[in-house]
C-alpha cells in the first residue's frame, strides 16, 4: 500500500460537464486529489477519461463546472496557465522536440533561460536518481528517457499535481519499477498524482485511491483496498465478468493441435541471435519477453522486413527464402505490427480500404468497392467492430476498434500462421476480452498463432506454450507450467543480473 | 570525417566553394580579386534577404512561395510613390509596410484560419502579382529618382549603404534566432508543434510573426532590387521564391522544420551567387546559368544524402554490435535459469 494520509487538497474538480456537439461526454464529474495521493483513474475507451484530463490541463474548456488547482481556479483553458497553477500532464506519448538538446526540451516555454535553469534541473535529476545527458540531442532518447524528460518538465515547473497518462505502456518492467520508485519519492514530497492505466496489477502496486469513469459519470470512487479487481472491471464495463472469459489458471486447453506450420531454426538478425521455434496449427505460442528483447525484430525478420543474417525458416514443409511481406502474405504468413498508428492503419482512409489493403495486389484493375465493403461488413459482424459504416475513417475509431480493423485486415489474407505483436496495447478492458476471444477462436479454427506480448498475464491466459526471449537470445521455453512468475523469471533473470 | 560533413553544412559549403574558387582561379587568372568579391556580395543581396525570410518560415515548418510576388508588389509601391513625388524615406516606409501587410495576410490565413501554408501562399503568389500588375497597369516603372539609385552606390570596398544594412539584418536574424527566447520558439514550433503548444509556446503568434518577417524581408529585397537596377519590370522577383527555397535546402535548413542556421543560409547564398559570377567570368553563355546552378545544387544534395545514408547505416550496425557484445556474458545466467525452469 503506497497511500499515506494526506495533509491538504491540491486539485479539485466540481461538477464538470462537457459535450461535443450534442453528444455529452462528461456529465457532472467531481473529483478531489490530496497532496501525496496517487489516485488511479480508470475507464474504457469513450468513457470521457481523456476529455477530463484535457479539461484539467487546460487543453480544452469545460461547458460548465470548476477546476481548482492548488487552491486557485483555472479561469480559462490554456495549458500554460494550468502549468503556472501547478498542474502538469505527462502525456502517453512524450512531446519531444527531436532537434533540440535535452535541456532545451525540459526548459522550453519557461521564462528563465536553459542555462540559468541547469543547476535546478541537475538537482532534480539527482533527487530522482536517474541519469540523463542534458546536452545530447533529444532525438536519441529512449522511450523511458522521454518519459523522464516529461516528468522533469513538470517538476521544474514546481508542479504539485501530475497527471501520468498510461506511463508504463511503453516501459519495460525494470523501467516501470524505476518509475514507481520515482513516483513514491514525489509522493513523499507531497505531489498529488492522477495515475491513468489499464493495468490493474500496476494500479494495485502504486495507487491508494481509485475512481472509475463510465459514460461520463464516476461510477466507483474510494480507497482501492475496498474493491476487488472484479468490482473494478465490472464498474468499468458494466458487464458481469465470468470466469470463462477470464483466466482458467493453466493456460488454454489444447483441443486439437495439428501439424507443424512454421519451423524456425537458428534465426539470427538485427538485435537477436540463434532463435529456434516451432508452431503448429491450432496452437497459440506465446513469445514473451521485455521491451527490447528482440521479439519485434524477430517477427519483422520472419516477415521479410529486416535482413536475415543466419538460420532457416520452414513454412508448411518448404523453406521460405528471400522473404518479402508480399510473398509471406501470399503463402499465409501474416504479421500484425506493434504500432498500429505507424505501421498498421491508413488513418485517413475508409475502413474497408484498410481491410482490403492487405490484398490490394490481388484486387482487379478496376476496383469493385461494393465487394470490398461486403468483405468489411462480414468482419464487422464477426469481430464486433463498432463503427458508423465501412466508409468511416480509421482515425475516428477507438483503440480497441482500430485493433479489430487491423485483425480483420490480417484475416482477409486467410493466414495459416498469424504473428500478433502486442495486440492489446492501449486497448481497454472490454475490447481486450473481445480480442482474446477472437484469438482463441482463430486457434480453434486451425490457425497457428505466435503471440508477442510484454503483458505476461495475457500470455498466461492465452498461450499453450511459451518461448521467452531475453536480450536477443532464447531465454527458455515453458510448456506445462505457464504462469506469470515463471515467465517473468525467464524474461528478467538476465536483466536483473545485469542491473545488479 | 563523414560525421563532420553531415553535421556541419557550413564547413562543407565553404570547402566546396574553396575548391571551386581554386579551380576557376587557375583556369581564369584574375577571377580571384576584390572586384569579384564585391560583385558577388552586391549580387547576393536580393537573394540573401528572400532566403533569410524563407528560412524563418521554414523553421516553423511552413513554406512561403509568395515572397517573389511580395518583392514585386512592394517594389511597385515604392516606384509608384517615388514617381508620384513622395519623399524617399516615406516611400521606403510604404514599401516595407506593403511587405509587412502582405506577410500578415499570409500569416493570418496560415496561423489563425488554419489554411496549409503551401495552399495559402500559392494563392497569394498570384494575388500579389496581380495587384502589382493592376497598380502599374502592366507597365514597367522607369525613371526612378537618383536618390534611390544612390543607396546602391559603392561607398568603398564594393560596399553600398544597402550592403551594410543587409549584413546588419543577417547579424540581427542570427542574434534573434540563436540568442533570444522568442527565437528559440521558431525552432520549437517547427520541431514539434504539439509539444510547443503543450509547453505554453504561443504557436500562432510565432507562425504569424514568421510570415510578417518574410514579408518585410521581401519588401526590403524589392527596395534593393529597384535601387540596383534602376527600374522595376512587371515580373520583378518572379521565381525568386523557389530559388530561395533551394538555397535553404542547400544551406542545411530542413524543410520539415526545426533545424537550420543563419550561417548555413548565408554560405549557401554566397555559394549560389559565386557560381553565377564564375560562369560570367568563364565566358560561358548566360543561358547555361540555370542548367549549371541546378546541376550543382542537385549534386551537392545527392552527395549529402548519400553521406547521411552511410552514417545512418553505420550507426545502425554499431548499435546492433554493441547489443551483441554487452549481452553475451549474460547468456550464462539465462542458460542456468532455463535449466532450472525446465525441471
Can you walk me through this structure?
The complex is a heterodimer of chains A (500) and B (343). By secondary structure, chain A is of the alpha/beta class. Chain A has 2 domains: 9-237, Rossmann fold (3-Layer(aba) Sandwich); 260-499, Rossmann fold, CATH 3.40.50. Helices cover 35% and strands 25% of the residues of chain A. Chain A is globular. Chain B has 343 residues and is mostly helical. Chain B is 77% helix and 0% strand. Chain B has helices spanning 2-7, 9-27, 34-59, 67-83, 88-112, 117-136, 146-150, 161-179, 181-191, 193-198, 203-229, 240-250, 262-281, 289-327, 331-342. In chain B, helix 3 (34-59) crosses helix 9 (181-191). In chain B, 43% of the residues are buried. Residues 325-343 of chain B have low confidence and may be disordered. Chains A and B meet through helix 2, strand 20 and helix 17 of A and helix 9, helix 10, helix 14 and helix 15 of B.
List the helices and strands and how they pair.
The complex is a heterodimer of chains A (500) and B (343).
Chain A: E1 9-20, E2 23-34, E3 38-43, H1 49-56, E4 64-69, E5 72-73, H2 79-85, E6 87-90, H3 102-107, H4 114-127, H5 143-156, E7 161-165, H6 173-188, E8 192-196, H7 200-206, E9 209-214, E10 217-223, H8 229-237, E11 260-269, E12 272-280, E13 284-288, H9 295-302, E14 308-315, E15 318-319, H10 325-331, E16 333-336, H11 340-344, H12 351-356, H13 369-383, H14 399-411, E17 417-421, H15 429-444, E18 448-453, H16 456-462, E19 465-470, E20 473-478, H17 484-499
Parallel strand pairs in A: 3-8, 3-9, 6-7, 7-8, 13-18, 13-19, 16-17, 17-18
Antiparallel strand pairs in A: 1-2, 1-4, 4-5, 9-10, 11-12, 11-14, 14-15, 19-20
Chain B: H1 2-7, H2 9-27, H3 34-59, H4 67-83, H5 88-112, H6 117-136, H7 146-150, H8 161-179, H9 181-191, H10 193-198, H11 203-229, H12 240-250, H13 262-281, H14 289-327, H15 331-342
Helix pairs in contact in B: 2-13, 3-8, 3-9, 3-11, 3-12, 3-13, 4-5, 4-6, 4-11, 5-6, 5-11, 8-9, 9-11, 12-13, 13-14
Amino acid at each position: 500500500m503506497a497511500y499515506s494520509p494526506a495533509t491538504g487538497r491540491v486539485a479539485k474538480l466540481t461538477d464538470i460537464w462537457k459535450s461535443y456537439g450534442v453528444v455529452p461526454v462528461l456529465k457532472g464529474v467531481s473529483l478531489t486529489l490530496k497532496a501525496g495521493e496517487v489516485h488511479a483513474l480508470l475507464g474504457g475507451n469513450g468513457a470521457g477519461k481523456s476529455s477530463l484530463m484535457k479539461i484539467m490541463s487546460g487543453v480544452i474548456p469545460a461547458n460548465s463546472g470548476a477546476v481548482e488547482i492548488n487552491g486557485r481556479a483555472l479561469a480559462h483553458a490554456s495549458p500554460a496557465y494550468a502549468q503556472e497553477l501547478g498542474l502538469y500532464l505527462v502525456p502517453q506519448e512524450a512531446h519531444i522536440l527531436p532537434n533540440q538538446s535535452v535541456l532545451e526540451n525540459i526548459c522550453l516555454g519557461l521564462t528563465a533561460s536553459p542555462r540559468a535553469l541547469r543547476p535546478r534541473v541537475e538537482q532534480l535529476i539527482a533527487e530522482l536518481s536517474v541519469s540523463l545527458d542534458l546536452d545530447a540531442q533529444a532525438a536519441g532518447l529512449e522511450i523511458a528517457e522521454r518519459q523522464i524528460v516529461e516528468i522533469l518538465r513538470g517538476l521544474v515547473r514546481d508542479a504539485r499535481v501530475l497527471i501520468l497518462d498510461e506511463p508504463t505502456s511503453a516501459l519495460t518492467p525494470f523501467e516501470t519499477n524505476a518509475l514507481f520508485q520515482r513516483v513514491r519519492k514525489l509522493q513523499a514530497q507531497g505531489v498529488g498524482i492522477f495515475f491513468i492505466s489499464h493495468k490493474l496489477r500496476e494500479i494495485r502496486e502504486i495507487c491508494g485511491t481509485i475512481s472509475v469513469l463510465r459514460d461520463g459519470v464516476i461510477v466507483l470512487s474510494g480507497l482501492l483496498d475496498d474493491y476487488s479487481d472484479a468490482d473494478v472491471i465490472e464498474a468499468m464495463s458494466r458487464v458481469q465478468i465470468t470466469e470463462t472469459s477470464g483466466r482458467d489458471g493453466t493456460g488454454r486447453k489444447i483441443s486439437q493441435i495439428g501439424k507443424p506450420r512454421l519451423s524456425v531454426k537458428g534465426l539470427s538478425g538485427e538485435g537477436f541471435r540463434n532463435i529456434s521455434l516451432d508452431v503448429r496449427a491450432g496452437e497459440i505460442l506465446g513469445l514473451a519477453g521485455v521491451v527490447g528483447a528482440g521479439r519485434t525484430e524477430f517477427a519483422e525478420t520472419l516477415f521479410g522486413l529486416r535482413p536475415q543474417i543466419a538460420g532457416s525458416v520452414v513454412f508448411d514443409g518448404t523453406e521460405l527464402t528471400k522473404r518479402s511481406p508480399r510473398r509471406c502474405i501470399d503463402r499465409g504468413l501474416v504479421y500484425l505490427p506493434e504500432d498500429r498508428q505507424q505501421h498498421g492503419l491508413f488513418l485517413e482512409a475508409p475502413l474497408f480500404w484498410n481491410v482490403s489493403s492487405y490484398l490490394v495486389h490481388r484486387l482487379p484493375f478496376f476496383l469493385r468497392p461494393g465487394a470490398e465493403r461486403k468483405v468489411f461488413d462480414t468482419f464487422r459482424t464477426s469481430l464486433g467492430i463498432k463503427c458508423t459504416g465501412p466508409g468511416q475513417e480509421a482515425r475516428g475509431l477507438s483503440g480497441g476498434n482500430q485493433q479489430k480493423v487491423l485483425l480483420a485486415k490480417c484475416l482477409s489474407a486467410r493466414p495459416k500462421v498469424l504473428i500478433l505483436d502486442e495486440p492489446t496495447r492501449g486497448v481497454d478492458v472490454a475490447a481486450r476480452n473481445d480480442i482474446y476471444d477472437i484469438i482463441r477462436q482463430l486457434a480453434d479454427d486451425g490457425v497457428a498463432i505466435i503471440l508477442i506480448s510484454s503483458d505476461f498475464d495475457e500470455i498466461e491466459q492465452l498461450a499453450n506454450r511459451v518461448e521467452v526471449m531475453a536480450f536477443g537470445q532464447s531465454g527458455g521455453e515453458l510448456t506445462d507450467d505457464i504462469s506469470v512468475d515463471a515467465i517473468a523469471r525467464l524474461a528478467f533473470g538476465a536483466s536483473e543480473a545485469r542491473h545488479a | 570525417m563523414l560525421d563532420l560533413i553531415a553535421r556541419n553544412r557550413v564547413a562543407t559549403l565553404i570547402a566546396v566553394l574553396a575548391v571551386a574558387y581554386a579551380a576557376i582561379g587557375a583556369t581564369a587568372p584574375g577571377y580571384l580579386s576584390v572586384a569579384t568579391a564585391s560583385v558577388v556580395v552586391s549580387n547576393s543581396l536580393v537573394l540573401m534577404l528572400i532566403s533569410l525570410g524563407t528560412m524563418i518560415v521554414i523553421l516553423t515548418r511552413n513554406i512561403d512561395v509568395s515572397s517573389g510576388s511580395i518583392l514585386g508588389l512592394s517594389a511597385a509601391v515604392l516606384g509608384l510613390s517615388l514617381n508620384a513625388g513622395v519623399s524617399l524615406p516615406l516611400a521606403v516606409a510604404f514599401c516595407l509596410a506593403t511587405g509587412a501587410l502582405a506577410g500578415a495576410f499570409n500569416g493570418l490565413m496560415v496561423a489563425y484560419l488554419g489554411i496549409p501554408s503551401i495552399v495559402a501562399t500559392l494563392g497569394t503568389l498570384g494575388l500579389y502579382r496581380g495587384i502589382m500588375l493592376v497598380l502599374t497597369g502592366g507597365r514597367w516603372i522607369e525613371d526612378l529618382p537618383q536618390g534611390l539609385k544612390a543607396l546602391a552606390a559603392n561607398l568603398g570596398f564594393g560596399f553600398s549603404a544597402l550592403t551594410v544594412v543587409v549584413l546588419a539584418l543577417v547579424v540581427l536574424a542570427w542574434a534573434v534566432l540563436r540568442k533570444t527566447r522568442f527565437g528559440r520558439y521558431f525552432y520549437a514550433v517547427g520541431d514539434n508543434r504539439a509539444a510547443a503548444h503543450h509547453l505554453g509556446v504561443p504557436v500562432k503568434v510565432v507562425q504569424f510573426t514568421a510570415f510578417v518577417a518574410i514579408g518585410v524581408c521581401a519588401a526590403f529585397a524589392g527596395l534593393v532590387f529597384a535601387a540596383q537596377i534602376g527600374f522595376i519590370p512587371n515580373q520583378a522577383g518572379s521565381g525568386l521564391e523557389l530559388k530561395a527555397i533551394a538555397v535553404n535546402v542547400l544551406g542545411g535548413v530542413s524543410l520539415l522544420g526545426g533545424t537550420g542556421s543563419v550561417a548555413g543560409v548565408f554560405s549557401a547564398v554566397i555559394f549560389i551567387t559565386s557560381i553565377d559570377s564564375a560562369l560570367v567570368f568563364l565566358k560561358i553563355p548566360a543561358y547555361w546559368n540555370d542548367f549549371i546552378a541546378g546541376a550543382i545544387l542537385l549534386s551537392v544534395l545527392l552527395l549529402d544524402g548519400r553521406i547521411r545514408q552511410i552514417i545512418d547505416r553505420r550507426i545502425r550496425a554499431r548499435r546492433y554490435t554493441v547489443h551483441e557484445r554487452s549481452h553475451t556474458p549474460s547468456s550464462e545466467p539465462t542458460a542456468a535459469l532455463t535449466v532450472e525452469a525446465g525441471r
